[in-house]
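Hey Z.,

So I finally got round to the 3,4-dihydroxybenzoic acid thing we talked about over coffee. Here's the setup:
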Amino acid sequence: MGYRTTAAALVLMAACGATAQTGPLRLNPDKFTRQTLEMPDGERVAFKAYEGIPYVTNIEDSAYQTLNIYVPEKLAGIRSVPILMRTYVGGYAASTAKAPSPADATGRALKEGFVVCVPGSRGSNSTITRGGTIVYTGIAPNGLLDLKAAVRYLRYNDDLIPGDSEMIFTDGTSAGGAMSALLGATGNAPEYEPYLRRMGAADARDDVFAAVCYCPITDLNHADMEYEWLYGCLNTGVRHLDEDQIRISDELSALCPAYINSLGLIKPDGSPLTADNYKDYLKGLLMESAHRALEEGCEIPDSIGFSFYKEKSGRPGAFSPGGAPGAGMPPRGDGRDAPSFGPGNAPRFNKSSDFVTGLDLDKYLGYVASVTPLKTPPAFDQMGVLVATPSPENKVFGNEAGEAANFTDFSLRHRLGDPSAELSPEMDRRVYLMNPMNFIGKADASVAPNWFIRHGAKDRDTSFLVPVNLAIKLENAGKRVNFALPWNRPHSGDYNLDDLFGWIKTTIM
Ligand code: DHB
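And the result:
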């Protein structure tokens, strides 16, 4: 329901002498403070702040199970005002409900006249003391359950919040991008219902309208094999792996083709995406990213694997039309803030006629690995395979006593030295609940109709296969997906907000 309906409902209730429905999970519309935010351009955005609101009745961890809602004084002049729900989850750790920031999508959303919600959520490091014992409260899938409960709260209070809970955009980066993808994919899925009921989540739907996912660290139970299948070509080169590491890398890599083929993905041209043609498809995506960057005036060195058709090869300053970018011709799209770009740094390429003709993928991957050293195998389910120390993922799949755990049969078997070892059914269930890929196309999950997925072209935190598979699976399920591997981007999020908010507007207008 939008703002106008809310106002009309309140007028009607006042006329009848009725009071608004109250209850433990109802927003008190009178309890707010007035705040302002100074944006980078100097504009001051005024808003009402509703902060520290519990979104479940059975609160286990009051430090995290609250949300903040920010309502701009000047709402967007449209019938239905969207709600941006931004999670700051990183590293699968706990995250508090935060204030909006002028530096990210929260500030920009308020400036646009959109409502903002920042929920807290439990995570791998959140603890309480129960009966004198430390209890880890945020083991998977608890952080996700918190965020789903926050969505339910927004919908349950739709009549009191001047934003449309049928237009919730979730947004997060990395592990937060994974959470955003999970929120987008698992709407109303019955698997979560018993947990949410136990937590005392509001009795409302938890599907969302759109998921914005920056570099989602997801598909965790396949991410190790996807990493080695892609980056294994560098094992004896820039990666400098030892013999044991190469053995693990090879074993993992060998599992990947069957997984890719099991997804049954279809490329935009209608043909199957298989392990045999996958690398060519990925090359196409990276070439597209590079080509866009060239068009925007970025310089791409010859040394990183791309080949080009250059009308007048290497001619300095041959950019046309409009002179040097940055001087009257603002960059646009995802190449926007590539470091080699800017006034006084005229590109070598002729925008109108130069283009990318090929890519040596292994060479480009070597470049990615030279920017940020690769993870060692296994990249995610590390604990007890070649190192003792747990990864963020091992921690979030740990137990309430804070003991980390394996979440793939592969790593469990290596740790125990038992080739027949298997995850417990309970762990299988938890891993299943934390993977958005399981819910896309599932009849009883309401998958968001709109997706904005970004993974930087030099981001090595997970394999390119992870976001690509997610995007294609969604597209194949009939969802509207805006996907890109933005040029020169490392592991990061909420960049190029013009691009993001331009897209948001296309989905709501
Ligand atoms: C994050 C990054 C990682 O490389 C990872 O494995 C898990 C989480 C993060 O930045 O949230």
